[in-house]
Amino acid sequence: MKKTNNRPLASIIITNYNKSNFFLKAVKSSIQQTYKNNEIIFFDDKSTDNSLNKIKNFKKKNNYKIKIISNPQKKNSFATFNHITAIKKSLNQAKGRYIFLLDSDDYFHKNKILEIIKTFETDKNKNFILDQPIFKYKKKIIKKKYPYKFSKNKWPKFPPTSCMCFEKKSLKTVLNKIAFKKFPNLAIDFRLAVYYALILKKFYIHKSHFTFYRQVEEGMDSKYIKYRSKEWWKRRKEAFDFLNLLLKKNNLPINKGLDFFITKFFNNILKI
Q: pTM surpassing 0.85?
């Protein structure tokens, strides 16, 4: 573990695909952290919008130490699997003890790394911490509060990927346990939250809002926004199937709550 003045190194992993209009905000928010013992890893998943040239020029012009990883070829049409691959490849180059995930269209409050690492270092049993998000959509700004408990019998609610912070060894282990390819519509944040909360029993949500989450219409979740959409119910079913698969593999009772049966009913009606 690398340390400066007894401070552990933090690795900020920024994953990007075609977000050239937004990612500099993410990068600058990482550079401007009050906690200075960190490294920035920028993973570009073969963008087609000049993102790679833009980040290279930014790095050269400002002389910042940013590790840039360029995926030579997208191997999968599903965003979820590409996201998992991007984080795995970035982790292989990360040197920090703690990992902070950041989607390229989101950005951090300047004190995020400092305050989250304080929490990690105060309680060594914590290896997964989420902070509260500030949602930004067009001109609206909403500070959302998520519950501090995660229930397997209700539709799970948790902060998005950019709010997720990990102890590195733990994250590397868990990624290998959640990368099932039979759930193409199921995002990485759900997979991680479920595993840490229900299998490892480690799910801690910080009370503070440190992450600005930008809701963009062309984002990977946009087609799931409306509750009545067929895609929304399809992903909801995948979520319960994934959840119950993990529970079964770990010899735990499967989910048979009301939400599960409602989801099953609508999937039958919609013939998904």
A: yes
